[in-house]
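Worked example

This section walks through a single chain of length 185. The input is the sequence exactly as stored; nothing has been trimmed or padded.
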Amino acid sequence: MAVLTLTIIIFGNNKGSLDLVVAVNKWRLPDSFKNVQDKLAPFCHDLVGDKVIHHPNCKKSDMVKNDICGIQNEFAGRWDSSFLEASPKLAAKNVSSTLNSMGCKHIVVDFEGVTVDATILEKWLSEFLGELRPDFKLSIAAYAKNQEQVSNELANRQRYKFLCSEFDEIWLMTYDYSIPPWTGI
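Given that input, the structure is written out below as tokens.
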């Protein structure tokens, strides 16, 4: 992690600062994470089309005193890519309205299992993020990869160059390393 951070600092274009965080949770916080000092984002909202739905496995207590909110596309137990067929501006308006009302200042986007071409996903995300950017810090939960193209086709739809240019922070999903042969150390 130290080498990766130094590489970003030394070889990055330094247009701004990019934070790297290791994502450790989804929408449920295991007991072992409840007392850590660093804030974690419960992924308690799903984007289905342009609508924001509160995840059924989230309790109200997960959202208390936390200004970091996660939004994902895991609906009814499976990844759902219907947001790509919706207006990114309308989806952003609905996300902004819902998460603003909860006091969220930082949104972590976790859109996984997307099967469209990376270019289509990036175009949609650019418009979506452009609407949210003035009001929120924006992060993404990204697949951990040891190269741009890996054997996990879903991970290949997340291109690091795009992610680094569009998001304030990257949360690396390092648990991908434990699912060979998709990624390897």
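What to look for: Residues 3-15, 22-30 have pLDDT under 50 and may be disordered.
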